[in-house]
Amino acid sequence: MKITTDEKDDFLYHQVAERLGQQIENNTLKAGDKLISLRALSREQGISLSTAYKAFIELENKGYVEARPKSGYFVRYKPARRLKKQTFPHFPSERAEIDVDEMIRQVYRTLSGDGMVRLSLAVPPVELIPVAKLNKALMEAVRNSPESCTNYDEIPGNLNLRKQIARYAFNWGGNVTADEIITTHGCMEAVAFCLKAVTEPGDTIAIESPVYFGIFNVIKILGLKVFEVPSDPQEGPDIDFLEKALDSVPIKACLFVTNFSNPTGALMPDNRKKQLVEMLAAREIPMIEDDIYGEMYFGKSRPKTCKSFDKKGLVMLCSSVSKTLAPGYRVGWCIPGKFWDKVISNKITQTVSSATPTHAAIGIFFETGRYDLHMRNLRKALHTQSLRYIQAVTEHFPPDTQISRPQGGYVLWIELNTKINAFELFEAAILQNVSIAPGQIFSTDARFTNYIRISFGAPFTTEIDAGLKRLGALIKSLEDLSE
Question: What is the pTM of this model?
Answer without folding.
Answer: 0.86
